[in-house]
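Data availability (excerpt). The following record was deposited with the supplementary files.
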Amino acid sequence: MAEKSYLDLKSEVWDTKKCSGCGACVAVCPADALSFAEGEMVVSPGSNGYCKQATDSVPCGACYAVCPRVVDQPKETLGVYLELLSAKAAFEIPHRQSGGAVTAILANALDEGLIDAVVTVTEDPWTLKPSSAVITKSEVLIREAGSRYSWWVPLLAALKDAAITRKCTKIAVIGVPCAVQAAFRIRASENDLLRPYAKAIRLVVGLFCTETFDYAALVHGKLEKKYKLAPHEIKKLDVKGKLDILKQDTTHLTVPLADLEDTIRPGCRICTDFSSLCADLSAGAVGSPAGFTTLIIRNDTGKGFVESAVRNKKLVTEPGVDTAAIEKLAASKIKKNSRK
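Predicted structure:
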């Protein structure tokens, strides 16, 4: 059976507004034909019109093979795991989210040579505009720690820079569930064009996620116009059933999620994965006390990275996680976004 091309991806996913915006197709396209344009609520990538398969009948199918939206969405809450822990960084991380555990684990991994790059999200400190990036130094990773995963960005687009341009061979990917699902598909695929990426991905860290917000729609279309809040006034964002904004003056602004419906990407509305079920290690603030991160260790790979950070006194862990709190949010997302 012939591989499906970007034309199939376009008709099945892009044109139906199911695209998650994870950026995986952009990364793996061997012709560099796909990209995300700048602008408000860009719902899917664009193409320059050239496709090795559709144009020249050269077998490819890489973009279709990695897309997390060409398969049914999962309906599990916690998923398969080995262990649940509450954890926090054992050192100071200035802009950490919850316990800073993920930053501590990845910083330790970089220092120990367990990984040589992290595909992640950075943001402009003044405008808060996010972008996908490749980080290779622990001090840079620590400096860039924060809550920027509330914004949408085609995270995996940076995977090509890491694996192909820089030729990194031990890459950690940290992202929300759709990016994690795409990374899982890359690792599991038998497509020859994806093998360099699959071989290079050593660790996938998934974040808890209810939805992501379009930067331009939220910042310029909502916060600035309705709430008179400029980007440089924002210190931290946290989504827990509502959008809690910690301002630079230490006061809080709480925005109901119902007021942000028009800033949520269309592709988020069909996602039923809250706890990043396909990751090696999942993490989020839900289920642990303030100042701690919940870690869901899903396999031996995730366990090894956590144990290394603990052994090197970079991470402190405690037993006991409120699984009911995680399952409640996960079940709510499944109910809300499941197709009737």
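Summary of structural features: The longest helix spans residues 323-337.
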